[in-house]
Amino acid sequence: MKTLKILVGVAFIIAISAFALNKVSGTKIKGGYSIGDIATDFKLKNVDDSSVSLSDYDDAKGFIVIFTCNHCPYSVAYEDRIIALDLLYKEKGYPVIAINPNNPKAYPDDSFDNMKIRAKEKGFTFPYLTDDTQVIYPMYGATKTPHVYVLEKTTTGNIVRYIGAIDNNYKDASAATKKYVEDAVNALLKGKKVPVEVTKAIGCSIKA
């Protein structure tokens, strides 16, 4: 009986410790970030073989971080819109940073070599990074490709201001009646509150 009490006590302490760790610096290991959390920076390999971090962008006002990939039809359907977002907002201080979170062993189409090919074929104007250790996407809480996180750069860190889908019609950009990412960035550029802060990301599940 005494041994059982000790085991229960140890389990309780471990559970409390895990909960506390999940709250450190806004990083939630399970469930990812919420609106208002400070997002972690990263150092990931780009398709040009350089390493890219958010801290590299001295003049940025924020970032449009998009978890995407090669093989997913939803990601493919949004590629032109992702390029358009970068062209529209990069010069205004909100560049697109694309990250492939998938395990290439599960989907060879998402290998680093194939990422290079896809970026060249489509003429990506933004970094296309590989989360090869699959550490970053769980921190953010990404579950789909594509899955968007709009971050506002502040003196205290990169604050999460929007999470979810790019718009409300993955099949046809011209038929989208809600452009969530554009609305979020436009609001931030005007110093206003983001009108819709969270939406459901529609896409393929991330392959671990």
Notes on the structure:
By secondary structure, the chain is α+β, with helices and mostly antiparallel strands. The strands form two sheets. An eight-stranded mixed β-sheet has the order 1-9-8-4-5-6-2-3. It has a two-stranded antiparallel ribbon with strand order 7-10. The radius of gyration is 18 Å and the shape is globular. The chain has helices spanning 2-23, 73-89, 112-122, 136-140, 180-189; strands at 38-39, 44-46, 51-52, 62-67, 96-100, 128-130, 144-145, 147-154, 157-164, 204-205. The chain folds into two domains: 1-30; 32-205, Glutaredoxin (3-Layer(aba) Sandwich), CATH 3.40.30.10.
Number of helices: 5
CATH topology of the largest domain: Glutaredoxin
Kindly name the structural category. Answer: alpha+beta
Report the top-level CATH class of the largest domain. Answer: Alpha Beta
* Helix coverage percent: 25-40%
| Main pleated-sheet profile | 8 strands, mixed
Number of domains: 2
Strands of the biggest beta sheet: in what spatial order?
1-9-8-4-5-6-2-3
Report, as a whole number of angstroms, the end-to-end distance.
41 Å
Give the C-alpha Rg: 18 Å
Could you tell me the strand content as a percent range?
15-25%
Return the average pLDDT rounded to an integer. 88
Helix/strand order, N-terminal first: HEEEEHEHEHEEEHE
Let me know the number of strands.
10
CATH-derived architecture of the largest domain? 3-Layer(aba) Sandwich
Overall form: globular
Q: Looking at this structure, what is the CATH superfamily of the largest domain? A: Glutaredoxin
Spans where pLDDT lies below 50 across 5 or more residues: 1-29
